[in-house]
Write a structure and sequence with these properties.
4 helices, 0% strand, 91 residues, mainly alpha, 73% helix
């Protein structure tokens, strides 16, 4: 944990924000990078509040987003998704 946020989530968001901020500084202006920094601080505070009660909650939320993206075709066809630990193969 770093600032009350799990290390993987903290490093992923910090890295993404740093890369985008550097490109904004180079391509747009320093003010755009400052706006991104202002957005970053409440995001870290929100992640800290989410993990205050349950340290695995952020992981569950990211897994849910990943599964929703992964099962987009089945959801579009059937209107539902199924969480399974393995991929089913067509015989």
């Amino acid at each position: 944990m770093f600032f009350g946020v799990p290390l993987i989530a903290f490093l992923a968001t910090t890295g993404a924000f740093l890369v985008v901020a550097m490109w904004l500084l180079y391509l747009v202006s320093g003010y755009a990078s400052l706006v991104l920094a202002v957005i970053y601080v409440p995001l870290v505070i929100a992640m800290r509040e989410i993990t205050r009660r349950d340290d695995q909650r952020l992981r569950q939320m990211f897994m849910r987003l990943r599964m929703r993206h992964r099962h987009g075709k089945g959801r579009a066809l059937w209107g539902a998704i199924s969480f399974a630990p393995y991929r089913l193969k067509r015989r």
